[in-house]
User: What shape does this take?
Amino acid sequence: MIDSQARYGFVTEIEADLIDKLLDTLKTEFGEIRLLEIGVFSANTVRGVYRRAKEIDCPIRCTGIDFEQYRPNPTPDPDYIFHAGDSMDQWREVKGKFNFLFVDGCHCVVHSSQDFLNYSPFVVEGGYILLHDTALPTDIGKDKQEEWPQDHSYAGKPPSVLGVREALKKLGLLDNRRTDFELIEEIESSSGLMGMMLYRRVLPY
Assistant: This one.
């Protein structure tokens, strides 16, 4: 069996299993995978999504957003679309609708919040948003990851998990105050690192 990081990049085994399950669900519910990924980095996640789509014989189209230095080379697919730049700006260039939004870009509160607000409108009714690094911060996590300013400082630095959780709280996603998205599954972490939360759009935008 392929290990979790070979499957989808820097994720745990249980997180990789969740992505597998989600992609299978997309095939069943939509007959295709249409992924919009915020934070491509090494492109291991999107390559894993293409690999899984081939395994389950599912049509796929993917779009990625990150800084130019993270442009996949070679691209995972001839039809793959990459928007180079800060995710705070690149939403204006995105075309079409998606049934899978994966948010794993800059982990500060500002970017995490704006990535949800700017890109969730591209998700169709019944589609899914998967957010990474949603773990509840702990002293262990703080020791392993530095807490850096909420600016455009993602490139070349380790992510801070602290901002993602706080952004979800501000957005009303932690306590189910939103009516447009419902929490489907959460993968928790006792280390203060990693973690995932999967939401489904239940109302049209």
About this structure: DSSP finds seven helices and seven strands in the chain. The two ends are 39 Å apart (CA to CA).
